[in-house]
Specification:
The complex is a heterodimer of chains A (about 260) and B (about 400).
Chain A: E1 2-7, E2 9-11, E3 17-18, E4 25-26, E5 32-34, H1 36-52, E6 55-61, H2 67-76, E7 80-84, H3 94-108, E8 113-117, H4 128-135, E9 140-150, E10 153-160, E11 163-169, E12 173-177, H5 190-196, E13 201-204, H6 217-220, E14 224-229, E15 238-241, H7 244-257
Helix pairs in contact in A: 2-5, 3-4
Chain B: E1 2-4, H1 14-17, E2 23-26, E3 29-32, H2 41-45, E4 51-53, E5 69-72, H3 89-105, E6 109-115, H4 121-127, E7 132-137, H5 146-160, E8 164-168, H6 171-184, E9 188-189, E10 194-198, E11 201-208, E12 213-218, E13 225-229, E14 246-250, E15 262-268, E16 282-286, H7 293-305, E17 309-312, H8 314-318, E18 339-343, H9 349-355, E19 360-365, H10 372-375, E20 378-381, H11 384-398
The chains are: A alpha/beta (about 260), B alpha/beta (about 400).
């Protein structure tokens, strides 16, 4: 089978700092990482590759520097990498991003499974995966913990609200992955990275994938950012001290005042 | 297109605020590089209005016929088929918020219900404000399925043309809404924390970058304007029992072949301990300061007494106090409960980004300078592992 994994480069939000005066984001110097959910999706695909000898192709959309996440994925074992990079993509919302990714995946050719992270940590929308599935006319299984393949049967263990389901689908299918202990993210060695430089890597533009300008970027995005602003500042914590019984009483008092407990 | 005009004075204010490090100061003029996503933060910070983003308008669609605020009704997952499914609370929260929007627009609030059998659901939906219930009753709708449900919703929307449609940001809502939005080529905004009407449009506010910034989103040129909203975000209105809603029956041609993904097995967790932490109203979280696995285990009891679930810091997970599925933070789960009670967590940034959106944070830590106190509403400087057993004792006495 042929597997495509969608990966995104995101700012490491643990490193993001807030300017205390303006309340705005200080982004300069913040490292970029592979979206953690995509990392789990990649591990899931690589595990299937190891077991069944599937081919794994990575697709990412972003500025030229996003090549590093594709390179890392190839160093971990993916066979091929594609980066969609073009100023025409800038400002794309989840609809326009799904459109571009689905165009690229069509160009790749016969694809049996697509893996993606459940969501990206910079946008937290969880919309791009289902969007790609829809635009390719594929079924989707979202919020997967584990995926197994048995012949032509694809078995996915997924979360549902308040429980779990085991689902079955036939290829092609798109799966979005949550973080799960079965797929612990690995990081490549320096040697693996240099070895991966020999693997095929392509940068595709909007024209390369046959994407129409009217569906890309700001113009192609149904949603618009009207305004960006700092979140309301929290007031300073009301501080108390006290261990044991004293601390306990203080907590009870607070929970009553906040109506979490009855008086 | 983003452009910097001659007005730029090279003041450098835009460079550090760019979320994508996409601005360089070259010859005392801001220059955007390829990392620019046209997010617009720089436009707002620029003191001399030198930066402009122009947007070519997509070909105008005729939007005049779109009216009404719709709410997708989500039913509980059934463990056994014979079980009567209930309407999830998030639906009532959406109706409460939707009622406000509909009143402001002077339009109807409609609930959209897909089920194999209607158990007088219109009564409860009416009590929470629905004027109308679009009901599709069909055997194939006995359980949620992406293909089948999105097909039905798309056909209803095409037929009746609502202006706004709201979904719960549950696992089901987050599976369904993007599929529908993609098919219809309409805007969808995830996890809205506030909804309002601005110049006749739905103004959707949501946090981004792990809650570090807020964004207001509009979808001016497509209908319906769709949003998902997390459970426990919108305030529930007082139900008016006896207030009825009109049931509009809709037909759907559904065939088994639409079901491309089949359920082999479903497990519904009944004990509070296995409630997903992102959906919990109350989270009792512990860190290294709980000292031992045995002491950490007391948090289970405490969380049960408070009707919540247990969360853990990365340190607690690494020490083997709790399973990874309960980890709150960057490499775990992002949560926003009504009450977040933290014991012995110092509050590394990775943890803070995952819980700071909680309504009320009460933090216990013995270090008065612990960063957790920067986001807490109440801070108690004390030994967490000593307070927990006392708290359990006191709560048990109250019951």
């Amino acid at each position: 089978m042929n597997i495509v994994v969608c990966v995104k480069q995101v700012p490491d939000s643990t490193e993001v700092k807030i300017n205390p005066e303006t309340g705005t984001l200080i982004r300069a110097g913040v490292p970029s990482i592979i979206n953690p959910y995509d990392h789990f999706a990649l591990q899931a695909a690589l595990e299937l590759k190891k077991k069944h000898d599937f081919k794994v192709t990575l697709v990412s959309m972003g500025p030229p520097q996003a090549k590093s996440v594709v390179q890392m994925g190839m160093a971990l074992g993916a066979d091929e990498g594609i980066l969609l990079s073009d100023m025409a993509f800038a400002g794309s919302d989840t609809w326009a991003t799904s459109y571009a990714l689905s165009k690229a995946i069509r160009k790749i050719g016969k694809v049996d499974m697509i893996f993606a992270g459940m969501q990206a940590i910079d946008g937290d929308t969880a919309q791009t995966g289902p969007g790609v599935a829809q635009q390719l006319g594929m079924p989707q299984i979202t919020f997967c913990e584990r995926v197994e393949v048995d012949g032509r049967r694809i078995i996915a263990h997924k979360q549902i609200d308040g429980g779990h389901e085991v689902l079955e689908a036939r290829p092609p299918v798109l799966l979005t992955m949550i973080m799960h202990k079965d797929y612990t993210p690995r990081y490549p060695s320096f040697l693996a990275i240099s070895a991966s430089l020999k693997k095929p890597f392509h940068v595709w533009s909007a024209a390369d994938i046959g994407a129409e300008a009217q569906f890309l970027g700001l113009k192609g995005s149904p949603t618009q950012v009207d305004k960006i602003y700092p979140p309301p500042q929290r007031e300073k914590a009301a501080m108390f001290s006290g261990s044991g019984v004293e601390g306990m009483q203080r907590i009870l008092q607070i929970m009553k005042a906040e109506h979490f407990l009855e008086d | 297109m983003i452009e910097v005009s001659k007005k730029c004075i090279g003041c450098n204010k835009c460079v550090p605020v760019c979320p994508f490090a996409a601005i360089n100061m070259i010859d005392k003029k801001a220059v955007m590089n390829e990392a620019c996503t046209l997010c617009g933060v720089c436009v707002q910070i620029c003191p001399v209005q030198a930066i402009t983003i122009t947007r070519e308008e997509a070909s105008a669609r005729d939007l005049s016929g779109y009216k009404g605020v719709w709410v997708y009704v989500e039913l509980t997952e059934n463990g056994e088929k014979t079980q009567t499914r209930k309407i999830k609370q998030v639906t009532f929260e959406l109706l409460s918020a939707g009622r406000r929007l509909a009143d402001e627009l002077g339009q109807d609030l409609c609930a959209v219900l897909l089920a194999d059998k209607n158990h007088n659901y219109e009564k409860e939906l009416g009590a929470y404000g629905a004027d109308k219930v679009y009901l599709v009753e069909h055997d194939e709708l006995f359980e949620y399925n992406t293909d089948i449900f999105s097909t039905v919703i798309v056909s209803l929307v095409t037929r009746h043309k609502p202006s706004i449609m709201l979904y719960g940001a549950t696992i089901q809502g987050r599976d369904l809404a993007p599929r529908v939005a993609s098919t219809l080529y309409v805007g969808l905004t995830a996890d809205c924390t506030a909804l309002a009407i601005k110049d006749g449009l739905l103004l959707q506010s949501r946090p981004a970058f792990g809650g570090n910034i807020m964004a207001d989103i509009l979808a001016p040129s497509s209908r319906p304007q769709m949003s998902t909203v997390r459970p426990n975000v919108m305030k529930l209105c007082e139900p008016v029992h006896g207030r009825s809603s009109l049931v509009v029956r809709e037909s759907a041609k559904l065939d088994k072949s639409l079901r491309r993904v089949k359920v082999l097995e479903r497990k519904i967790a009944h004990d509070a301990g296995s409630v997903r932490i992102e959906n919990s109203r109350v989270i009792v979280s512990g860190g290294r300061g709980m000292k031992t696995k045995e002491k950490f285990r007391q948090l289970e009891e405490l969380s049960k007494l408070l009707g919540g679930v247990v969360g853990a810091s990365r340190a607690a997970v690494d020490l083997g106090f709790k399973e990874k599925t309960h980890q709150v933070g960057q490499s775990g789960t992002t949560v926003s409960p009504k009450l977040y009670l933290s014991f012995g967590i110092s509050g590394a940034v990775q943890h803070i980004v995952g819980m700071k959106a909680s309504d009320v944070i009460i933090a216990v830590n013995k270090d008065p300078n612990a960063p957790i106190f920067n986001v807490a509403k109440y801070g108690i400087v004390g030994d967490a592992h000593e307070i927990v057993p006392k708290l359990i004792e006191a709560l048990k006495k109250q019951k």
